[in-house]
From TrEMBL:
InterPro entries attached to this UniProt entry: Flavoprotein-like_sf, RNR_NrdI
Entries under Pfam families matching the protein: Flavodoxin_NdrI
GO terms, molecular function: FMN binding
First and last residue of the signal peptide: none
Full protein name: Protein NrdI
Gene3D superfamilies for this protein: 3.40.50.360
Protein backbone atom coordinates (compact mmCIF):
# COMPACT_ATOMS: atom_id res chain seq x y z
CA UNK A 1 0.00 0.00 0.00
CA UNK A 2 1.32 3.42 -0.92
CA UNK A 3 1.90 5.68 2.08
CA UNK A 4 0.68 9.17 1.20
CA UNK A 5 3.51 11.67 1.74
CA UNK A 6 3.05 14.94 3.61
CA UNK A 7 4.65 18.09 2.21
CA UNK A 8 4.86 20.78 4.86
CA UNK A 9 6.26 24.22 5.43
CA UNK A 10 7.98 25.04 8.69
CA UNK A 11 9.83 28.24 9.58
CA UNK A 12 13.05 28.44 11.58
CA UNK A 13 11.11 27.86 14.82
CA UNK A 14 10.37 24.39 13.48
CA UNK A 15 7.07 23.73 15.26
CA UNK A 16 5.40 22.18 12.25
CA UNK A 17 8.52 20.19 11.44
CA UNK A 18 8.48 18.68 14.93
CA UNK A 19 4.88 17.61 14.37
CA UNK A 20 5.46 16.30 10.85
CA UNK A 21 8.41 14.18 11.92
CA UNK A 22 6.18 12.27 14.35
CA UNK A 23 3.76 11.18 11.62
CA UNK A 24 5.67 8.01 10.76
CA UNK A 25 5.55 8.50 6.99
CA UNK A 26 7.54 10.32 4.30
CA UNK A 27 7.51 14.07 5.02
CA UNK A 28 9.18 16.81 2.98
CA UNK A 29 9.94 20.34 4.14
CA UNK A 30 9.05 22.95 1.52
CA UNK A 31 11.42 25.37 3.26
CA UNK A 32 14.11 23.34 1.46
CA UNK A 33 14.60 24.48 -2.11
CA UNK A 34 15.01 20.92 -3.43
CA UNK A 35 11.52 19.97 -2.23
CA UNK A 36 9.87 23.28 -3.04
CA UNK A 37 10.92 22.87 -6.67
CA UNK A 38 9.94 19.18 -6.99
CA UNK A 39 6.83 17.54 -8.40
CA UNK A 40 4.93 14.76 -6.64
CA UNK A 41 4.61 11.21 -8.03
CA UNK A 42 1.11 10.61 -6.68
CA UNK A 43 -1.46 11.74 -4.12
CA UNK A 44 -0.09 13.91 -1.33
CA UNK A 45 -1.24 15.97 1.65
CA UNK A 46 -0.24 19.55 2.46
CA UNK A 47 0.50 20.65 6.03
CA UNK A 48 0.85 24.41 6.38
CA UNK A 49 1.03 26.96 9.18
CA UNK A 50 -0.64 30.34 8.69
CA UNK A 51 1.59 33.42 8.81
CA UNK A 52 0.12 36.89 9.13
CA UNK A 53 2.84 39.01 7.64
CA UNK A 54 1.01 42.31 7.80
CA UNK A 55 0.71 42.73 4.04
CA UNK A 56 -2.36 44.64 2.83
CA UNK A 57 -4.11 41.52 1.52
CA UNK A 58 -3.77 39.83 4.94
CA UNK A 59 -2.14 36.95 3.12
CA UNK A 60 -1.10 34.12 5.46
CA UNK A 61 0.03 31.46 2.96
CA UNK A 62 3.79 30.84 3.20
CA UNK A 63 5.61 31.73 -0.03
CA UNK A 64 7.17 28.24 -0.23
CA UNK A 65 3.71 26.66 -0.22
CA UNK A 66 2.57 29.05 -2.92
CA UNK A 67 5.62 28.15 -5.00
CA UNK A 68 4.98 24.41 -4.69
CA UNK A 69 1.33 24.85 -5.67
CA UNK A 70 2.32 26.70 -8.84
CA UNK A 71 2.89 23.26 -10.40
CA UNK A 72 -0.27 21.92 -12.04
CA UNK A 73 0.99 18.38 -11.38
CA UNK A 74 1.16 19.14 -7.66
CA UNK A 75 -2.21 20.91 -7.60
CA UNK A 76 -3.97 18.03 -9.33
CA UNK A 77 -2.55 15.36 -7.01
CA UNK A 78 -3.32 17.24 -3.77
CA UNK A 79 -5.88 15.23 -1.78
CA UNK A 80 -6.26 17.22 1.42
CA UNK A 81 -4.93 20.01 3.59
CA UNK A 82 -3.86 20.14 7.25
CA UNK A 83 -3.08 23.26 9.22
CA UNK A 84 -1.15 24.49 12.22
CA UNK A 85 -2.19 27.80 13.73
CA UNK A 86 -2.68 29.78 16.87
CA UNK A 87 -6.12 30.87 18.10
CA UNK A 88 -4.64 34.18 19.27
CA UNK A 89 -4.86 35.22 15.61
CA UNK A 90 -8.66 35.27 15.84
CA UNK A 91 -10.39 35.41 12.46
CA UNK A 92 -7.07 34.59 10.82
CA UNK A 93 -6.85 31.25 12.67
CA UNK A 94 -5.83 28.55 10.14
CA UNK A 95 -6.45 30.99 7.32
CA UNK A 96 -3.76 29.56 5.01
CA UNK A 97 -4.97 25.95 5.23
CA UNK A 98 -8.61 26.98 4.91
CA UNK A 99 -7.99 29.26 1.93
CA UNK A 100 -6.03 26.59 0.06
CA UNK A 101 -8.72 24.00 0.79
CA UNK A 102 -11.47 26.34 -0.44
CA UNK A 103 -9.54 27.34 -3.57
CA UNK A 104 -8.65 23.75 -4.48
CA UNK A 105 -11.92 22.09 -3.48
CA UNK A 106 -9.99 19.67 -1.21
CA UNK A 107 -10.99 19.00 2.40
CA UNK A 108 -9.29 20.29 5.55
CA UNK A 109 -8.30 16.93 7.04
CA UNK A 110 -6.95 18.12 10.38
CA UNK A 111 -6.09 21.28 12.30
CA UNK A 112 -3.97 21.72 15.41
CA UNK A 113 -2.44 24.55 17.41
CA UNK A 114 1.27 25.41 17.43
CA UNK A 115 3.24 22.14 17.57
CA UNK A 116 0.25 19.98 18.55
CA UNK A 117 -0.29 17.64 21.50
CA UNK A 118 0.46 13.90 21.66
CA UNK A 119 -3.28 13.40 21.06
CA UNK A 120 -3.07 15.56 17.91
CA UNK A 121 -0.21 13.41 16.62
CA UNK A 122 -2.17 10.20 17.23
CA UNK A 123 -5.33 11.58 15.66
CA UNK A 124 -3.45 12.84 12.63
CA UNK A 125 -1.70 9.48 12.18
CA UNK A 126 -5.09 7.76 12.27
CA UNK A 127 -6.61 10.14 9.68
CA UNK A 128 -3.67 9.70 7.32
CA UNK A 129 -3.75 5.91 7.77
CA UNK A 130 -7.43 5.90 6.82
CA UNK A 131 -6.57 8.03 3.79
CA UNK A 132 -3.85 5.56 2.68
CA UNK A 133 -6.40 2.73 2.87
CA UNK A 134 -9.11 4.70 1.05
CA UNK A 135 -6.73 5.61 -1.78
CA UNK A 136 -5.48 2.04 -2.06
CA UNK A 137 -9.09 0.88 -2.42
CA UNK A 138 -9.90 3.57 -4.97
CA UNK A 139 -6.91 2.68 -7.13
CA UNK A 140 -7.03 -1.09 -6.75
CA UNK A 141 -3.65 -1.16 -4.99
C1 LIG B 1 4.57 36.11 12.83
C2 LIG B 1 3.55 35.01 13.05
C3 LIG B 1 2.31 35.11 12.43
C4 LIG B 1 1.33 34.11 12.61
N1 LIG B 1 0.10 34.24 12.00
C5 LIG B 1 -0.86 33.31 12.21
C6 LIG B 1 -2.16 33.43 11.63
O1 LIG B 1 -2.47 34.38 10.90
N2 LIG B 1 -3.08 32.46 11.86
C7 LIG B 1 -2.80 31.38 12.65
O2 LIG B 1 -3.67 30.53 12.83
N3 LIG B 1 -1.57 31.23 13.22
C8 LIG B 1 -0.61 32.16 13.02
N4 LIG B 1 0.64 32.00 13.60
C9 LIG B 1 0.93 30.79 14.36
C10 LIG B 1 1.75 29.79 13.53
O3 LIG B 1 1.05 29.40 12.37
C11 LIG B 1 2.01 28.52 14.36
O4 LIG B 1 2.68 28.87 15.53
C12 LIG B 1 2.82 27.47 13.61
O5 LIG B 1 2.88 26.31 14.42
C13 LIG B 1 4.24 27.92 13.29
O6 LIG B 1 4.90 26.83 12.65
P1 LIG B 1 6.47 26.84 12.37
O7 LIG B 1 7.18 27.14 13.66
O8 LIG B 1 6.78 25.44 11.91
O9 LIG B 1 6.76 27.84 11.31
C14 LIG B 1 1.61 32.98 13.43
C15 LIG B 1 2.87 32.89 14.05
C16 LIG B 1 3.82 33.87 13.87
C17 LIG B 1 5.16 33.74 14.55
Amino acid sequence: MRIVPVYYYSSASGLVRAFAEQLGRPVFNLAEREHRRSEVDGPWVLLTPSYMTGNPANDTIPEAVRRFLRSAVNRRALVGVMGSGNRNFGVHYQMAARQIAAASGRPVLFEFEISGTPWDVEECRRILGDLDAALAGAHGG
